[in-house]
Write a structure and sequence with these properties.
This protein has 215 residues and is α/β, with parallel strands linked by helices. The protein has two domains: 136 residues, Rossmann fold, CATH 3.40.50.1000; 67 residues, Orthogonal Bundle (DNA polymerase, domain 1), CATH 1.10.150. It is built from nine helices and six strands, in the order βαααααβαβαβαββα. Strands 3-2-1-4-5-6 form a six-stranded parallel β-sheet. The longest helix has 19 residues. The structure holds 1,6-di-O-phosphono-beta-D-glucopyranose (B16) and magnesium ion (MG). 1,6-di-O-phosphono-beta-D-glucopyranose (B16) binds next to helix 3. The site of magnesium ion has 9 residues, from loops.
Length: 215
């Protein structure tokens, strides 16, 4: 029986994925490394430091630790500039109602995000208090596809992994949910998220019950 719903943040609750994309693309192009939407898919759900490693590997570039630190700070500064103007109106369509219906049905709600900026973004969206538990990139050692973020979230919610469902837009996130032993709802298509248990395009007029019936 499902007792908890764990939400990814970027690309599920709001569209910060586009801002990560812009900030990484500017940084990669500045280093002379090509960067497109297809490559960006590999970075979704992956921590900041692991994302930089993947970009450098893609460009066959080796940098020392201090230069990497500098680039990580630059990327984050740019990302924070881009998210600065976000507000409640940036919650993705249908999501606020979806969460409201879960709460009314007594389902516990958590956030499981690789982002170290997750709490700042949730505050901007004025949605922080909707969640009993928020696990972000500051609280985990291993980023998605490792299951740590979701296992920790379930544990703090007081639930078994089998009692939780995860909503994810990233390949790494879906893999993390499955490795955690949870049902994974993919926000996207069967083609881009083949390991999810079912798929949705958005949350308008959707409830968890009707999505789970499709599995
Ligand atoms: P930050 P999620 C992830 O968040 C993003 O999908 C990923 O693109 C980003 O690199 C990662 O957070 C780290 O974010 O630089 O803000 O710490 O999708 O797990 O909510
Ligand atoms: Mg995401």
């Amino acid at each position: 029986m499902i007792k908890g719903c764990i939400f990814d943040l970027d690309g599920v609750i709001c569209d910060t994925a586009q801002f990560h994309f812009i900030a990484w693309k500017e940084l990669a192009n500045g280093l002379g490394i090509p960067f497109d939407e297809a490559f960006n898919e590999k970075l979704k759900g992956v921590s900041r430091v692991d994302s930089l490693e993947l970009i450098l590997e893609n460009g066959n570039l080796t940098l020392d630790t201090s230069r990497k630190e500098e680039l990580l700070n630059l990327k984050n500064q740019r990302y924070l500039e881009l998210v600065e103007g976000m507000s409640q109106s940036d919650i993705l369509p249908g999501m606020a109602e979806f969460i409201f219906v879960l709460a009314a049905g007594g389902i516990l709600k958590g956030v499981g995000s690789s982002s170290k900026n997750a709490k700042r973004i949730l505050d901007k969206l004025r949605i922080t208090k909707a969640f009993e538990v928020i696990v972000d990139g500051n609280m985990i050692k291993n980023s998605k596809p490792h299951p740590e973020v979701f296992l920790k979230c379930a544990d703090l919610l007081g639930l078994e992994p089998s009692e939780c469902v995860v909503i994810e837009d990233a390949q790494a996130g879906v893999e993390a949910a499955k490795r955690a032993g949870m049902i994974a709802i993919g926000v996207g298509t069967k083609e881009n998220l083949p390991n999810a248990d079912t798929w949705v395009t958005d949350f308008r007029h959707r409830t968890l019950d009707d999505i789970l019936k499709e599995i």
